[in-house]
Amino acid sequence: MKSLLRRKTLREIDQLEKIVSLFDGLARCEIAEEIPFQGKRFPIHVVEIGSENPEDPVVGFFGGVHGLEKIGSEVILAYMESISSLVKWDESFKKRLKHSRILFMPIVNPVGMWTRQRSNPQGVDLMRNSPSEGQGNKTMYSGHRISPKLPWYRGEKGKEMELEAKALCRVVKERMFPSKLSVAIDVHSGFGVKDRLWFPYSRGQEVYQQIGEVMAWVDLFNKTYPNHFYTIEPTSHQYCIDGDLWDHLVDEFFKINPNTMADKKMFLPWTLEMGSWIWLKKNPLQVLNKLGLYHPLIPHRYQRILRRHLTLFDFLHRSVLFPKPWLEINKDDVKKFHLLAREKWYA
Ligand SMILES: [Zn+2]
């Protein structure tokens, strides 16, 4: 635990600390890093609940990588608040936590949130900051090294990753990789009218190694919630980017675990991109507000977004607890789902 000598600065951080106190000691809270800015120090919290066995399945919730997209952090904080109640009375939920862990890192870029910027204080877009290199056509949006004054700046070539990016990677490697099954979800908000659920890769059309299992997961989700509203696809279906942290972490995971098939081990990072044009369409004046492009400003819409993804979050948890129908399937089924995935996403 790093120094706690700091001034509270960000409303979302205050809210997070308040929610941690609602757990009545059932949550383990640490500060993964502190980001210095204008004489203050902004903590990046990591909160865990449930099993302390590192091999037990884990779901990780990440948010606020892009400072402007603070609705992602708020969606996770709202979920944490619900859980802080469930852990006290819901016996089935308590039972689930005996054999699994839930991890939260809801405010990855606190200074970006404080200054209402996408990037961190160095002008670096954290989701372009890893060593992962894109393939194929590049645009400015894919990430560039021209200047930190321009959006989507990757940082200087050859330089270490930024503190925030390193903290996220460290948390995933130390607290998720040891588990036999770890699923992450990183919550963003951006353009478009649909809520999109993305899996790797974002650097190009490369096929994810465990695509059969991903397809089996999607099949189970579709069957369990046939009326869900997500478009599920590899990130590269929408655009290709350099330096994606999750692509990089997947590379690291496969380096340590070259034989996932035999071990039935899996690390699967999802990105939830909430389609913020839906909010804009209904309230066009919102475009005049800097936050408005990424954040619902009308109260009832805001509340709706806070509860909109609870079903998905709960499904993520159940799916790591009960991997039989999607991860522990036989070789023929993996093959079948692999072919289905190729047809659907990589034809
Ligand atoms: Zn984002």
What portion of residues is helical? 25-40%
Unreliable runs, pLDDT <50, ≥5 residues? 1-7
Spell out which ligands are present.
zinc ion
Distance between the termini: 48 Å
Give the count of helical stretches. Answer: 12
Q: How many E strands?
A: 8
- Main sheet: strands, sense, barrel: 8 strands, mixed
* Count of all domains: 1
CATH topology value = Aminopeptidase
CATH homology superfamily name: Zn peptidases
Report what the structure shows.
- It is a single chain.
- The protein is α/β, with parallel strands linked by helices.
- It has a single domain (11-345), classed as Zn peptidases (Aminopeptidase, 3-Layer(aba) Sandwich).
- Helix content is 38%, strand content 18%.
- Helix 6 (211-224) links the parallel strand 6 (195-199) and strand 7.
- Mean pLDDT is 92; it is low at 1-7.
- The structure holds zinc ion.
- Zinc ion (ZN) binds next to strand 5.
Keyword list:
347 residues; alpha/beta; Aminopeptidase; eight-stranded mixed beta sheet; 12 helices; 8 strands; 38% helix; binds zinc ion
